[in-house]
Amino acid sequence: MEQNYNKAMEYYRRAADQGCDYALIAVGSMYWPGLGVEQNKETAREYFRKASESGDQLVLTGLGIMVESGMITEEDYKPVPAV
């Protein structure tokens, strides 16, 4: 089966817009390297932060795995402190 990042992004965004934490990570993971979209690490960070706010253990584990693999750092998904 041929990979279609544009179509995948379309479906992930729909799910993310409905509040699916796993889709938020997927959208962020596609923005990070630019799969199906123009690369935008700041947008990716926004999606990672939204996902982490849920406190869902599987979501946090997924983000932790991304940190351990070197794809992102904890600062890429931690909430930005208020000024």
Architecture overview:
This protein is mainly alpha-helical and 83 residues long. The chain is 58% helix and 0% strand. It contains four helices and no strands. The protein has helices at 5-17, 21-31, 41-52, 57-68. α2 (21-31) runs antiparallel to α3 (41-52). The model has no long low-confidence stretch (mean pLDDT 88). It has one domain (5-76).
Ordered list of secondary-structure elements with their pairings:
Blueprint: H1 5-17, H2 21-31, H3 41-52, H4 57-68
Order of helices and strands: HHHH
- Return the structural class: mainly alpha
Low-confidence stretches: none
% residues in beta strands: under 5%
Give me the count of strands: 0
- By DSSP (H or I, 4+ residues per run), the number of helices equals 4
**Overall helicity:** 55-70%
Brief summary:
With 83 residues, the protein is mainly alpha-helical. It is 58% helix and 0% strand.
Key features of this structure:
mainly alpha; 4 helices; globular; 83 residues
